[in-house]
């Protein structure tokens, strides 16, 4: 960590060039003889990435950033705040601290937070940043987190782990056993140090695969931001052996869409019907959860087809996802397409349909955008249909 980067003149230059092209700036002569030009450019690029993702860091003076990739891979403040709503108690140890965004929010709920980071340089950088952010209840430890657990010999209220999905031998991996640290292998040791463990994984991890590797899972949280799934959270408790709760959250600008259900609990089969007046498309967190029958039952909505995952009703109801009014429905064929959509402009979505959005646009010369929303899908009679809609929410 080169503290010379905090020189007032250098910081002013960094702030002046937020959002500028790094490739163009790189062609300039370094105006600061005592500081590596690449380091200055890295601060500009990383801080630009932090502007929307990490507003507290962006707006605080004398923050030092790691690489742009580290900022891209860290939790956003929105997802970190959600994680903090899960934990409680007086102590938490983060075994994979990274840039420290999650710990910043854990520290708002927990009296004593430990930040463990195997990279000494990053650990020192994070400690510096916590001081700038005026966070006084986080202690930073550098080195292997297993050694830190052994050394501290503390019974923690929570252990938090965000295992790295990059393995030196295997490259990018998806099974928990191939991540670093190896959570399934170390889980019994973790439970010797805490009765509660919270694990963050990538959204690509299959829920059934995760359950096959872990034990004592109480809840699985599927977190989306602006309808893009960002992470899965696995809540484990040492002596828990009951049903697994699935909790979905889609964090949007002014609210959080939530839907919860119990995994593998008996639920009545949905009612199937042809399209009615309104169409409902679940948000991405629900789509990841697989709770397609559960949401149909809970909101009393009919389903278009077993595999379409689109829902319909005659009366408008609130719903965690997009809602549309259906203005026209027709079978997918040449005559109907020429009449209604050829050479038009529309937003296209496909669900349980053989053709891709790209091929549909190309075949029928449909431009993207506008106020018309078209769903190409399959109905309960296995007919390929097109729904022309206007968006309600």
Automatic annotation (TrEMBL):
**Which Pfam families does this UniProt record tie to the protein?**
PG_1098_Fer, Thump_like
Show the InterPro entries listed in the entry: PG_1098_Fer, SAM-dependent_MTases_sf, Thump-like
At the top level of its lineage, which domain of life is listed?
Answer: Bacteria
Task: Enumerate the spans annotated as THUMP-like domain.
Answer: 321-391
Residues forming the PG-1098 ferredoxin-like domain are 278-320
Matching SUPFAM superfamilies, A to Z? Answer: S-adenosyl-L-methionine-dependent methyltransferases
**Name the record gives this protein:** Uncharacterized protein
């Amino acid at each position: 960590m080169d503290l010379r980067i905090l020189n007032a003149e250098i910081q002013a230059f960094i702030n002046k060039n937020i959002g500028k092209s790094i490739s163009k700036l790189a062609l300039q002569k370094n105006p600061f003889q005592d500081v590596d030009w690449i380091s200055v450019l890295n601060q500009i690029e990383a801080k630009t990435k932090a502007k929307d993702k990490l507003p507290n860091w962006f707006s605080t003076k004398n923050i030092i950033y790691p690489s742009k990739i580290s900022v891209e891979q860290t939790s956003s403040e929105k997802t970190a705040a959600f994680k903090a709503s899960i934990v409680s108690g007086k102590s938490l140890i983060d075994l994979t601290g990274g840039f420290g965004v999650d710990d910043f929010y854990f520290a708002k709920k927990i009296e004593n937070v430990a930040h463990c980071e195997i990279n000494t340089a990053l650990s020192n950088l994070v400690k510096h940043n916590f001081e700038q952010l005026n966070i006084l209840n986080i202690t930073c430890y550098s080195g292997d987190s297993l050694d830190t657990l052994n050394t501290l010999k503390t019974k923690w209220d929570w252990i938090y782990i965000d295992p790295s999905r990059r393995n030196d031998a295997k490259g990018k991996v998806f099974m928990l056993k191939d991540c670093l640290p190896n959570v399934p292998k170390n889980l019994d040791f973790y439970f010797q140090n805490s009765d509660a463990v919270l694990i963050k994984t990538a959204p690509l991890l299959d829920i059934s695969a995760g359950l096959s590797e872990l034990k004592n899972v109480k809840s699985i949280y599927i977190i989306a931001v602006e309808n893009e799934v960002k992470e899965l959270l696995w809540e484990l408790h040492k002596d828990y052996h009951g049903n697994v709760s699935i909790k979905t959250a889609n964090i949007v600008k002014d609210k959080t869409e939530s839907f919860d259900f119990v995994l593998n609990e008996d639920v009545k089969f949905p009612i199937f019907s042809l399209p009615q007046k309104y169409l409902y498309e679940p948000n991405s967190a629900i789509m990841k959860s697989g709770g397609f029958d559960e949401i149909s039952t809970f909101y009393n909505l009919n389903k278009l087809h077993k595999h379409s995952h689109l829902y319909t009703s005659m009366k408008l109801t609130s719903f965690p996802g997009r809602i549309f009014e259906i203005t026209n429905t027709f079978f997918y064929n040449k005559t109907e397409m020429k009449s209604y959509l050829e050479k038009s402009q529309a937003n296209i979505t496909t669900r349980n349909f053989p053709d891709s959005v790209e091929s549909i646009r190309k075949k029928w010369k449909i431009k993207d955008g506008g106020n018309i929303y078209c769903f190409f899908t399959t109905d309960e009679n296995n007919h390929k249909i097109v729904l022309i809609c206007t968006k309600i929410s």
